[in-house]
Amino acid sequence: MIRFAGYTGVVFTLLVGIVATVLADLVEPQHLMIAGGVLPVIYGSALLALHPTHQRIGRWPVIFYGVGALFLFPWLVLRQYFGGFSLSALLYHMQEGVQEGMPAGTILPVLAGGVVVACLLHSVWFLFRRLPKAGAWLSFAATGLVAVNPFVQSAGMYAYFVVSGQEPRVLSDLAPVRVSQPSAGKNLVLIYLEGIEATYDKPDLFENAYQKIAQLAPEALNFTGVAQMPLTAWTSAGLVASQCGVPLVPRGFASRNRIDNAQSYMPGVTCLGDVLTERGYVTEMFLGSDASFAGKRSFLETHGIGHIHDIDELIAGGADDLGNWGVLDGQLLDATLDRLSELEQTDTPYFLSLLTVGTHGPAAELASECRGEHTAIEQDDILEGVRCTAELVSQFVKAAQDVVSAEDTLIVLLSDHLAHPKVSAYWDLSKFDRTNTFMVLGGGIAPGEVSKQGAMIDAFPTLLEMMDLPSDAHRAGLGVSLLSENPSWVEGQSDWLMRQRLRMDADLVSHLWGGDQVAND
């Protein structure tokens, strides 16, 4: 009876680990915390109940399994908390660092996920050692671990391209940024909406959460075909894509130039801040979070952003409405509006941007303006956050329109990326062809709708063109102006093909991160 209970506990641990990994997009952080606390107790008790005898196994199957488990472990742990987590995002965050600015509320679920994965991998090892021909079974399990490892899959894909004669070449598609206009164009106010995609514009399904943003569309030029291409699915990647015209291609573990987080960031590409700084713009960005998180500070400082107002400066200035990710959207927008008013009193052109935080997820974080007396900051329903941020951004836009010169200033609303898989509305969003928010108001731009298929990389040349600073041939990096008749880079390519081409082109990585910059005029 004791042995039966012991094996039941081991099998239960195995099943819980598999479910938590396979269905990672559905597992909430609080459930992960519970599993991380309870599972070791159950599994440890099960091991104590079982007799320690097992089949004798040769050294190599054990080593093979150990190596396979070790290299898969970090991938599985991050998948537990973040859901569908790409290899590119894993590489990027490992390189740029997450220790600064990572909310404490995230650390514990990630650690709990590590415990669950450790129990899962050990339970497989424990059970297979007790089967007849245990060495063969353990080798079989190790082969499975190696086969699903994303690094191994990437290597296999590269071999496929080489053998088939379709080795990817993306670098030749990269266009230099050549802006012939030497003086300043229009001012730019760029509002990044954290994970607030245009797919939310379905009032019945999403409870009018997006309504306040949708109500701005009649006075805006609305780009409705901006999808999410590979390597642009997290915040830093969205910033790079929309300001530099390239996806955030990781440097990789074997790249030629190992660049520290505090040093030059993608020096081989010219970005929006670079172009505007050369023409005398004041360039600033407001972040409610820590700018050092995931390399954002390094990116912004490398590419022409002269002043970064992040959580420390905002708190020093009196901000006190704080969530897990930093200063919440109400006070963030207020501080940005104050700075916008100051910039309008000068004769200097400016590029002022901000990034909201309330809809990062997995939970929504409501600013004080959206909370009742007894309403918690954190809400499981992401639609509450979308509704709150949409209302606050709408108020900001209307206030900004009263401050700026309508003909000389563009006000742009842009998703940083599509909503993450962990947010509560994800499965409803996934029923549709999802697109990012991209609206442009003011600056003498006629309202209307542009349905051309594109991606975040196309925002860069499109913004340049609307600022009266067009790049040659309407191209910048891999981006193509959505106002031109030229096909965008993503048209005619599947996500799978783009992902493989971008990941396999070592010359592209060397160019972007090694500083072999294409000449720009």
UniProtKB/TrEMBL annotation:
Q: How does it sit in the membrane?
A: Multi-pass membrane protein
Gene3D superfamilies, A to Z: Alkaline Phosphatase, subunit A
| Segments crossing the lipid bilayer | 7-26, 32-50, 62-82, 102-128, 140-161
Subcellular location per UniProt equals: Cell membrane
- Superkingdom, according to UniProt? Bacteria
Pfam families (UniProt xref): Sulfatase (PF00884)
Q: Read off the SUPFAM superfamilies from this record.
A: Alkaline phosphatase-like
The Sulfatase N-terminal domain sits at: 186-468
Its keywords, alphabetically, are: Cell membrane, Membrane, Transmembrane, Transmembrane helix
Carries keyword Lyase? no
Q: What InterPro entries does the entry give?
A: Alkaline_phosphatase_core_sf, OpgB/LTA_synthase_biosynth, Sulfatase_N
PANTHER family attached to this UniProt entry: LIPOTEICHOIC ACID SYNTHASE, PHOSPHOGLYCEROL TRANSFERASE I
UniProt protein name = Sulfatase-like hydrolase/transferase
Protein's organism: Aliiroseovarius salicola
Q: What lineage, starting at the top, does this entry show? A: Bacteria, Pseudomonadati, Pseudomonadota, Alphaproteobacteria, Rhodobacterales
